[in-house]
Please model this.
Amino acid sequence: MTDIEKLLSSCLFEIDNAINTKKLDDIKIAVLGKNGKLTERLKSLRNMPEDQRKIVGAEINAIKSEILKRIEAKALTLEILELEKKLSSEFIDVSMPARIRPSGCIHPLTKVTEEVANILSEYGFVFTEGPEIETEYYNFTALNIPDHHPARTMHDTFYVSYPTNNEGRRLLRTHTSPVQVRSMLVNNTPPFRYFSIGRVYRSDYDATHTPMFNQIEGLMVGKDISFSHLKYMMTDFLKKFFGVPKLELRLRPSFFPFTEPSTEIDINYEIKGGRILFGSGDKWMEVAGGGIVHPNVLKSGNVDPDQYQGFAFGFGLERLTSLKYGVSDLRKYFESDERWRNAFGFSYVTK
Ligand code: DAH
Model:
C-alpha cells in the first residue's frame, strides 16, 4: 500500500467511525484544512518534477473527492441521527395544563367613549378639546353664568393656586361646556358641529358622585338650527347608542345659564327580568341636558346671535356607561379593582 493509499484508508476509517458532526468536522479540518494532511501533500507538488507532478496531482485530487463524498454522506447520516435524538428528548407535552396569563382589557369608559365618538362623527360632529385647568372666564363667565352663581363657590369647584390673570382665577373645569366657546373662537364661521369628551372635576364624593368624572358635550350652530333638530338628533343618537329600534324622548323644561330655552332629556324604559330595557315601558330616565345656545354664549365665541343659532347638549359619560352596561357604583370606574375590571371590561379580541 502506498503512502497515500494508507492516508486514504485511515481517513475513511475515521470518517465511518465519527460519532457526531463535531468529530466529523475535526476530521475534515485535519485532512483538508489549511494545514491538513492532504493539503500538505498538494503543497509539496510544487517541488516535484513536471511529469511526476501531473500523475501524483491527479491521484491526490481523486482521493480528495472521495474523502469529501464520504464526509458528505456521513454528515447526512449523523444529522438525521442527531435530529431524531433531539426530537425524542425534547417533546412537548400537550396535555399539560396551560399557564394562565392575566390579560388586559378595555375599560368600559374607553369603550363607551369610542361608541359615542363613532355615532357623533356620523352626523358630522368634529372632535375638539379644551384644557382641564380652566379659567373662571371660560368655565363660567363666557357661558353666561353670573358672578354670584353657587357653582362658582369653593364648595363645588376646585380652585388652583396659580397667579390670576384677566380671565380670573384658575380652576379644574367643572364641565366640558367651556370647550363650546374655545371651539367657536378657533372657527366662528357657521355652520359647525363640535363635540368633546373629557374629564371634569367637582368637590363631591359618594356612590353617585366622584370628584372627577367625564362629560360629553355637543354644539351645532347654523342659520336655522332649532329645537326640533336637537330632539331628532338626541332620539337618533340614543337609539343607536342603546341599540334599540325605537325610543321615546321626554323634554322637560329646565334651566342652564348657557341655553335658552333649556331642557332636561329623559328616555322611556322598563325593568324586565331584573334588566333595564330602553325604548319600551312608561318609566322615564334622565340622560342629558341641552337647549338652544344662549346669545351671550355665541357672542363669547364671536358668533353673531342675530344671524345664527344652534343647540347644545351635555351627557355624563359614566351615567351612559352605567345604563348600558349595568355598573351601579360610580366609584368603581376609578378604583382599578382587577375583579371589577374582569367582570365589566371588554376583550381586545372580540368586539
Ligand atoms: N354643563 C352642564 C352640566 O355640567 C351640562 C349641559 C347642559 C351641557 C346643557 C350643555 C347643555 O351643553 O346645553 O351640568
